[in-house]
Amino acid sequence: MEDKILKALDPRGLFNDVQRAPLAPRLDTLAGKTVYIINSWPGDTHGFNQVEEALDAYLREKYEGIQLEYRTRLSYASDDPPLWAEMKERADAFIYFGAPSCSTTACAVTWPARSIERAGIPGLTVIYKYLEQDAMISREREGMCIRLAETEFPCNDISDADLKVLLQDIENALILPLKEEELISGPYTPQQPPRFCAEGTEDELQEFFQNSGLTDGLPVIIPTEERVAEMLKGTSHAPDEVVVRQMAPEGRIVTVEKAAITAVMAGAKPEYMPVILAMIEIMGTDQRHHQTAKSTNAFSFMQVVNGPIRKEIGMNDSVYALGAGNRANAVIGRAHRLALTNLGGSEVGVNLMGVMGNATTYAFAFAENEESSPWESYSVGRGYGADESVLTILTGGWSHCGNYMLKPSLDEFYAAVKTFELLHGVTILLSPMRAKELAEQEGCKTRAEIEEYLWKNISMSIGELKEIGIFQRMIVPDYKSGRHEWDPSFISLPDDAVVPVFPRKQMNVIVVGDPKGSNVVQGWSQCNAHSTSIDKWR
Asked: Alpha helix locations (H) across 360-472?
């Protein structure tokens, strides 16, 4: 009996139209000109120290009267209108240094394309060669051939010969006339993926999907037209309805049908569709995920489900809720990874360059055990109704601590959480027994009270924060930017003043696990929570 021939629908997201723009005209000379040298973020120059020092000497010696203005971005990922306005008024050219990071390199192309070259200021971005493909994706997306100068990583021991070449590349990028491809302007529509990507037997299509980089490394359910049509029964929304136009990490368009293809591949049941659509909505509307989805830090995303849908689709919020064994948890977690890969354009070795990777990027989804919690649900604490089904996605995930920390005071837990590398936020998972103990022993009758209690107790002195670099790298930029997630008074406090480590709004407390189990507590480096209604996708 011959194997049945199947046709697989293409799972990839759709491309947005691109508005192409020419580079700004180059300068005839740098003599007497003001050149802005921009570093991507505070703290250091990411291995470019030697290059910047040599560049400074090289340009000053060669071009009489040149003025070099050094600026450091407070956040490599955020827009910076005051800096762009300053440059438009004062800068004749710019040199933008990236970092050995996917997301930073992408932004070091994005912001020059959007805000500097389009303002008529010529320049270039200096990157590490191993991230060239990542930079090229950003160039294509932005519709501008930002000039690049490249060096090997690390470059703090760059040879004299290679340094000389790099300095000349930087100089030439500022003064050599524009090429034909750098002058192209006007709208451009990229070639879209076909409706069907392949046909063959089940085994042949498995090989195709694996070899094409369209999976998470595990076998998938082949998304045939019939299977996708069945999946679409899980939502009332039309197949061609656009869910998002900027899916992370590369800003692709996702329709309801494309979401259904992802759901089929992940092994979902139709009733999971509203949760998967809500996930795609979040990943396509929160711009922070465009950077974190492809960082060399290998961020992961924690998905937390609240409300009636938890029980409707059989999610696990009890024994082994964060582990294997439950289809809904596993599939919803896996769909996130497949969505980033296929719908958003994430590609290992190109724009997904996590140094070690992260096991929780495979699947990290669970439901809160609302029935066993002494407090209102996590989503109610975020302003939703008790009867609403809600998805929350948090990001971070490279650090974890805890389990059996049996001291009632949680001193061990506080000490462990403070060892997280980037102290921007924390998600605290409490077993029902631990939550009950804290409610009874510490008098925390609401979720807000327990978050306040934990926030105040996870503390350090200002001196300690300075010693580990968090004060300079995070608190000072936060103060200067005006975001004030940390109390602005921290800036002027003495070194012996003891303060909360994390921003108050970045404290997340979730109850999950076996109500008959022991008093377990876990701390996860997960923050920047973004919630949305699942019900609107039914």
From this structure: 378-381, 411-417, 432-441, 447-457, 462-467, 470
Q: Which amino acid, residue 535?
A: D
CA–CA dist 362, 28 (Å, integer): 52
Residue 76 is which amino acid?
A: Y
φ/ψ of 275, rounded to 5, equals -70, -40
The SS3 call for residue 509 is strand
What are the tens digits of pLDDT across the range 213-246? 999 999 999 999 999 999 999 999 999 999 999 9
Sequence-distant (6+) residues with CB within 8 A of 304 are 365, 366, 367, 368, 378, 391, 392, 393, 394, 510
Judged on CB neighbours under 10 Å (0-12, 13-18, 19+), 413 is buried
Q: Look-up: residue for tokens 């034909």?
A: 180
Distance CA 260, CA 11 (A): 9
Residue 399 has pLDDT above 90, yes or no: no
Q: How far apart are CA 365 and CA 342, in angstroms?
A: 19
Sign of CA dihedral 512, 514, 519, 524: negative
Order of strands across the sheet with 507-511?
365-367, 300-306, 390-403, 521-533, 426-430, 507-511
Q: Please give the structure tokens belonging to residue 19.
A: 């508005």
Q: Which structure tokens are listed for 258?
A: 């494309």
Q: Choose among 242, 317, 249: nearest CA to 105.
A: 249
First to last CA, the chain: 41
Give span(s): CATH 3.40.50.2300, the chain.
18-186
Asked: is 18-186 a CATH 3.40.50.2300 domain? The reply is yes
Q: Which two tokens stand for residue 119?
A: 């303002």
